[in-house]
Amino acid sequence: MMLSIAATELERTAAVYEDMSGALSRVDALAGPYDSAVARAEDCTWDSSAGEAFSTAVGFVRGEGLFVGGEASELALEARTIAGELYEAASMARTVAQLLSAAAGVAPDLLPEAVSRAAEALGDPVGFVRFLEQYGGVPSVLYTIEDIISALPIGD
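Above: the chain sequence. Below: its structure as tokens.
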């Protein structure tokens, strides 16, 4: 099977996004206990200037904590979505590499342009994603590569 740097890099990047999603989910999970702790701190009443300053600071911190928890939840979902898309692109890159392995050794000028472009794209994750976007996925011609090769007038 043909080597796909794109598949390896896309999968590695997807794993990073997946890890980030987990970390952000843990931040969101702390929002409830954090809010409870701040609420308990708000219940403290001191009849002094320091007490007033403390209450003001606690009020500010409470709002920030709830905001961060909500943002973390949204970012975790987004990171999970991106990871899924990257894993899907990596899977497509592996499929393309497997399909192209049938064309190994065939002169590129005898094959459709999509085949040579796919082979080039496998060396770069960004290039591969652009390739998928350009063709709207894996070009159907790649699924028929063996038929195309067997129909070539090689050695005649």
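The chain has one domain: 5-150.
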